[in-house]
Amino acid sequence: MNSASSNLTNNATAASGAVSPTAGTPATPVAAAASTPVTVTAASNTTASAVPAVTASPTFSPLYQQIKALITQSLQSGEWKPGELIPSEVELAGRFKVSQGTVRKAIDELAAENLVMRRQGKGTFVSTHHEARAHFRFLRLVPDEGVPHYPESKFIEVKRVRAPADVARLMDLKSGDAVIFIKRVQYFDGVPTIVEELWLPGLIFKGLTAERLVEYKGPMYGLFETEFGTRMIRASEQIRAVCADAGAAQLLNIDLGTPLLSSERVSFTYGDKPVELRRGLYLTSRHHYQNELS
Amino acid sequence: MNSASSNLTNNATAASGAVSPTAGTPATPVAAAASTPVTVTAASNTTASAVPAVTASPTFSPLYQQIKALITQSLQSGEWKPGELIPSEVELAGRFKVSQGTVRKAIDELAAENLVMRRQGKGTFVSTHHEARAHFRFLRLVPDEGVPHYPESKFIEVKRVRAPADVARLMDLKSGDAVIFIKRVQYFDGVPTIVEELWLPGLIFKGLTAERLVEYKGPMYGLFETEFGTRMIRASEQIRAVCADAGAAQLLNIDLGTPLLSSERVSFTYGDKPVELRRGLYLTSRHHYQNELS
DNA sequence: AAGTGGTCTAGACCACTTT
DNA sequence: AAGTGGTCTAGACCACTTC
Questions:
Q1: Which is nearest to A187 in space by CA: A118, A253, A241?
Q2: Tens of pLDDT along B96-134?
Q3: pTM of the predicted model, to two decimals?
């Protein structure tokens, strides 16, 4: 069932008749018959751009954006789980009482944001981090020669701690909040290449243990997605060049002072909520960070 | 005038009548009345994916992709120059004898690739590197604190040389071909932060002098675009961490061995043709490389 | 054959900019 | 008022997958 407040505002007063000409009147309520036909002013936008403080224009948003927000809600709530098939365009069009073209445009954007994947003839699927193609979306380190492949992990440390001030600030927590700290080394063909430290909100990742991490093969984001219902959507990364300190030098088996690529990355889930801070040091003597600019 | 061979193949035999049911028959030839109505099999794709050697399926491509290719040709040929307004969607639809929706979808993709920019109420404009928003598309180095702004350039060296083997390979030239070599340092607030070396094909950039570079204010890509008719479309970048050698240390006024971000970037113009190799060393003590992953 | 996404059309109206 | 891009609809057919 679609939760309460979901009234679509058609600010484009559709083409062919039947719709009352009064602007702002919903074409028809969504799903569930009884629902107060109040004009929605972009309030159902969980994902979208922050709502400007007060006043400002009524913030009209096109129908397809409202549909997109509704679909996103269903993704976030787990109504359709990662890897699963979502309802067809025609069915969604019927459910939302809009044309298929409008649903299509909504899904087009979701597909562009990698939240869903379309497959002609089969349907539209919820994206998942359990796929070869998703593995390298956030890991851009590739070997100078040979084909990219996923590294092996060795966990150094996993513990619950109180969030230091800088970590808390980046993750939108309060200083001292419980967080899970993970430190690991990753190996390409047996060569230690990445040492990274992760912080995760304790509230969300309660029950995450070293044992669970070790026994799980594959990308951590896959584990997070299936075990903790938290899917990483996008990330923001800051890259620098630094010198290896004693700790990194030992773990990566390199000389003190070797130049390393430093990456500080904050990952976000639905609603632009930060749910991971990751600080990595990359050895780039046989690998490089690959970026496509456009 | 649209050059010869531009016949659209409508492999979707449009909806409402008038079109002969024979598959492969063009809906109607494009522009210029007289043109041999021959079935085109994606031959007019200059930009697109390489045409598979021989045989293989007839390589159908949707109408909007063919329109996109035609528009791209006009952009490349300079029929519409950077910063200029291109014909309206309705006009293009009329010219190509397709519906406005089809032109729209073609332009949508061009806009997504930053080749054109749409402005509601005004029209669609050819993108240009002479814009504030374009300045940071390829330069991702931003200050740790304060607002980003464009650096000042000081040119160290500008000369014609023969392409070394590695440069030639990356730029799709023959070893020994004439190239223009440029070395410069860039300053943020007076602090030397970037030292970079560029190689450009001598054939295209004939007449590029140190004097012209020095007197020109603004991003080099702007100069290349207006003076040499070569517009950079996308780039591929490899990033590493390295130690400052004697030359870099002197130019950046830092200690020998200071860690620097190394970027090797190949930029491409229309038709995925490489037209610039740029090797930069970035001092990241007060700046960082900003990347958004999604 | 039926269902799904993908393409194409034609026409309507909205939001925005300029005349 | 006229022109441009932006949204929305309804219906047709194509390409692909599955039954």
A1: A253
A2: 999 999 999 999 999 999 999 999 999 999 999 999 889
A3: 0.85
